[in-house]
Amino acid sequence: MSAEREQKLKKLLNEQPTGIVLLSRWLTKQGYSAGLQKRYKKSGWLKSIGRGALVRSGDQVDYLGAVFALQKQQGMSVHPGGRTALSLTGSAHYLELSTKRVVLFGSKKERLPGWFQKHDWKLTVDYHASSFLPADLGMVEFQHKSFSLKVSGPARALMECLYLVPAKQNLVECYELMEGLNNLRPAQVQSLLEKCRSVKTKRLFLFMADKAGHDWFKYLNLKKVDLGSGPRKIAEQGVYDATYQLMIPRELAAHG
Hints:
Layout: H1 3-15, E1 22-23, H2 24-29, H3 34-42, E2 46-50, E3 53-56, H4 63-72, E4 79-80, H5 82-88, E5 101-106, H6 114-118, E6 124-129, E7 139-144, E8 147-152, H7 154-163, H8 171-179, H9 186-195, H10 199-212, E9 232-233, E10 238-241, E11 246-249, H11 250-254
Parallel strand pairs: 5-6, 9-11
Antiparallel strand pairs: 1-3, 2-3, 4-5, 7-8, 10-11
Helix pairs in contact: 5-7, 7-10
């Protein structure tokens, strides 16, 4: 490799954090042609982990380094959400959350690239594409290794959990998570509730916050939240809560 090409590569690597995926299309936009990328791979500086995705040789890259690339280089809204986000941000430290399975959310039309799906991240990735919440609302920056990426903040993460109820998320566990969220900011919760498009999610969130007796709950203006009309059945054989018009499991009604 010529000294000029080597210097160009060193500049790139110095500017980018370690532990991340480097997308070929993004590299091309930065002035690193397909031919140049091929030479870097042949010289052992970079290696491919799938079509269109590269990493530094010898670098340890996990799924968060891949999500970083999707967010920062491809402009996608894909992010750790639900139980995974609560675990990452320390909001679920009292529960045993599996590190062998992670939950990612993205907008309705976004799909994980083939290289992301096919690569072995040493864990199972549950991806959910939905626009029930605005892409940029209720997010926080999470520091991981030498880089940061967007993950769901506690209030949004719990709403993502509730969105998956009952098919892919246990409702009683959601309530146990809610019990720990005693420091949410009412203004942010209000905004999430007003812009959430899932009536089921909003009703369950309010039911649980009310049941948990959080102080922030009393500062919410429920008149501004569209809770739809008619009952919602979460459990076939359950207990009916008239306030939020929910048929909930008996074990949840008895919990706490």
